[in-house]
Amino acid sequence: MLPLVLFWSSFGPAVTASTVLQDAPCFVDDMVAALHDATGNDGELVNSSLTLLGICRESDYSSRPVLSELSVGIRRNNRRGVEVLYPAAVLISEEDDQENIMVTFDLPQSPLFKLKPVLVLAFKSPFTDGELGVTFSSQFLQPNTQSACISGGTMYILLTGRSSEGNVDQKWKVSVQAKSPNMKENLKDVLIGGKSGSNMTPLLLFSVDTGTDRRPGSSLASLQTSSLSFLCELRRFLDAVLPQHRTEPPLLRLDSLQSLPPLALGLSTSETLLVEIINSTAPTIFSFTSWSSSQPVHPGQLALSPDLLEELRQRLEKNEEQIKEMIRQGMLPNRASEKLDRLKELSAFQRHEPAAGERQYCAFLLLKALQTVTRTYNMQKKLRATRAGPSTRGPICGLGSLTVSLEKLLLGPQSADLNNCRGSCTFPLTNSNNHAVLLSYHIERGDMNERGPCCVPLAYDPLEVIDWNDEGSFLSIKPDMIAKECGCR
């Protein structure tokens, strides 16, 4: 269980926290985005958010009004207006002869307790044992008893807390009990992990300083509205728009591939190199393997000339229009439009004013992401047309899809379509040469000692990998990676 106490504030500071989870730098940003998306334009909670937030559809008490207020406020303040306070420790205990489990949150002093606290329990991975109704009871909750309904799509449980002075350390003791009898083991799976592997154990404790400094630009406020928010939003956008695979493809480690020497992306990057990258249509992987909360984000920066800035802007507009057309055609989900607008906002630079280096870098990443998305769907369309083409002699040599799953990345995409060539090489040969024709001739004459022509890739696209580490941002090019043309050889 990954716990935190979330306070709603009406006067609009940005999301702040002195520490983000070690293995999840987007943890807070993802949570705020989920709450932002929890309500529609009418201020009512949307049905899809009920499961995500563990809200029971029928309950004696519903936290919907408070959660709706929280979500609407986040929307109104453009995802600001939330502060996060982490408990210093979490203790989970149980009695063998009782059905309930006691969870104790050791909370530090903070004036934030005067506000309306919302206790959030966030799950690292979804519950896999069906559905589980849970009751939470505590004098620190308001009302004292609240319910949650946990299923495979539940990532957060939100419980409304009681305001207090906050001038002393507090220990919130919450009794947790499954609504159905004989479900204690399932409840333990939810809280501390088990056979379902649903969560982490209570040994994972958080000891942090609370981030309550409200000075402009302090704490994570400026970071959350720039680099970190952009990268997290970019990851959510890619997850939302790229095709999902029903089965997990074979795993591929990026460091196992041959690569050209890495090229630094920064203020000193040559204009010639930047022109080549911007004009390249090769798919891009955003690795950022060294990015974690213990490694704060050092924003990349670019210094583009006015002419190249204009080129970047035009290509962004062209790719944005292609993405919007895909949304209109139903190829991409409608929510992609709002995420795209958010990315444009976080990477925007003025047409007639010098752009901040960080904004140029974010706009550059956005272009490469949009190029990757449009290329993915254009390639799918091409492959479908190839399969649907008329043929009276069975499948002929042509391009087909071959997907591999990439090592766990903090951004994405999480998979890549490398393509492959498959089909027969019989007369008339597809995209062949004289050698293949002679091979086929020998086979037809009954010379079985020679191999026949094979359907193989003739041309490739590279795969571009943008990574970040302690020394900055780099582009690595994996050559001859994506098959793009087939023939008989």
TrEMBL record:
Keyword annotations: Differentiation, Growth factor, Secreted, Signal
Transmembrane segments: none
Subcellular location: Secreted
UniProt-listed InterPro entries: AMH_N, Cystine-knot_cytokine, Muellerian-inhibiting_factor, TGF-b_C
Domain TGF-beta family profile: 381-489
Signal peptide: 1-17
SMART domains (UniProt xref): TGFB (SM00204)
Cross-referenced Pfam families: AMH_N, TGF_beta
Location, primary (coarse class): secreted
PROSITE patterns attached to this UniProt entry: TGF_BETA_2
Keyword Signal in record: yes
Family, per entry: Belongs to the TGF-beta family.
Record-given protein name: TGF-beta family profile domain-containing protein
Protein source organism: Characodon lateralis
Lineage, top ranks: Eukaryota, Metazoa, Chordata, Craniata, Vertebrata
